[in-house]
Design brief:
Blueprint: E1 2-6, E2 15-19, E3 29-39, H1 41-48, E4 57-58, E5 62-70, E6 82-86, E7 102-106, E8 110-112, H2 119-139, E9 147-150, H3 156-167, E10 171-176, H4 179-187, E11 192-195, H5 201-209, E12 213-218, H6 225-230, E13 232-240, H7 254-258, E14 263-266, H8 276-292, E15 299-304, H9 308-316, E16 323-327
Parallel strand pairs: 9-10, 9-12, 10-11, 12-13, 13-14, 15-16
Antiparallel strand pairs: 1-2, 1-4, 3-5, 3-7, 3-16, 5-6, 6-8
Length: about 325
């Protein structure tokens, strides 16, 4: 099999395409032939060494393909099944990632593709869709009449968050960095779109809502978290789920009092898909909505496996307006 591996953390060029032995699935595992692998910003952070790990490291947190073999104690997945998967390993990358021609996946992390859903769409939506699902349905369960601020509203998670928030009846304010991205955010249901390079998003949020929003969904981190807190209404919630601009520094918890007795959480997918039942609930909803056309997925570009470094550069330089894929 072929796989992208990282032997020393660093810039995109540290990713190397290698020929390695194809592993056999162990108990509770499946071997999948990868037909599409999703690229996520978190992959770039594993590659750079932001999260601890011991090289060589495999990359790729989600994928879609066909089951080739199953290990012992696997009852509900069979060779030939059309599936997609995501890894939920906290801050450690998987031993066998999806940037490869074949992947070993825990059977508990596998979900069947609904009829009519293609492999590329499944690989493009699963990880970010599950993230958007738990943020909008559990971290702060949006309801009709709620207001939310979604940073990076044209990005992978952000575009899906906007759509799910509208499905739940919320008023959605999105932030973007360009007019092209503003059009995508509007197409995803954002009621108001703020170009943060031209406008102060705190002032605009206060102008639109009068009181601030119920919840801010923020994967930007260091450069936005203070202004995100300022965008909240009294007892609102800041839900951090990433740190694209850098890690939020330690803070005095009394700051939360000063901002209106607001709440702060930093989420991790592993705590929202802690068992197979919860994973299937979220994943099946996301895949079903995608197959039915209720969720739109923008695929910016599909790269061959050998061009993984180019894909990471495009993502890190904010050159994309949709999902990036690798095609083995």
């Amino acid at each position: 099999m072929q796989a992208i591996r990282v032997h020393a953390f660093g810039d995109p060029q540290v990713m190397v395409l290698e020929d390695i032995p194809t592993p056999a699935p162990g108990p509770g595992e499946i071997l999948a032939r990868v037909l599409a692998a999703g690229i996520n910003f978190k992959d770039t952070q594993f590659r750079s060494g932001l999260y601890p790990g011991e090289p060589p490291v495999a990359l790729g947190t989600e994928g879609a393909g066909i089951v080739e073999a199953v290990g012992e104690r696997v009852d509900d997945v069979r060779p030939g099944d059309r599936i997609c998967w995501m890894y939920s390993t906290g801050h450690r990358p998987p031993a066998h990632g999806s940037y490869a021609s074949h992947a070993i996946v825990p059977a508990n992390n596998v979900v069947a593709l609904p009829p009519g859903l293609d492999f590329q769409s499944a690989a493009a939506v699963l990880f970010q869709g599950v993230t958007a699902h738990y943020l909008s349905h559990a971290t702060y369960p949006l309801a009709a009449g709620d207001t939310c601020l979604v940073h990076s509203a044209a990005g992978g998670v952000g575009s899906l968050l906007c759509q799910m928030a509208k499905l739940r009846g919320a008023l959605v304010i999105g932030t973007v960095s360009s007019d092209a991205k503003a059009e995508i955010a509007r197409a995803c249901g954002a009621d108001h779109v703020i170009n943060y390079l031209r406008e102060d998003f705190v002032r605009e949020v206060r102008r639109i809502t009068g009181t601030g929003v119920h919840v801010v969904y923020d994967a930007v981190g260091e450069s936005t978290y203070l202004k995100s807190l300022d965008s909240l209404r009294r007892r609102g919630l800041l839900a951090l789920y990433g740190e694209a601009s850098g890690v939020v520094p330690p803070m005095d918890p009394r700051l939360l009092t000063a901002k209106g007795s607001v709440f702060l959480t930093r989420t991790g997918a592993q705590h929202y898909i802690a068992d197979r039942e919860e994973f299937l609930e979220r994943a099946q909803a996301v895949l079903r909505w995608t197959a039915e056309g209720k969720l739109k997925v923008w695929i910016h570009k599909a790269y061959p496996l050998s061009q993984a470094p180019e894909a990471h550069r495009a993502l890190e330089h904010r050159e994309t307006t949709g999902k990036l894929l690798l095609i083995p």
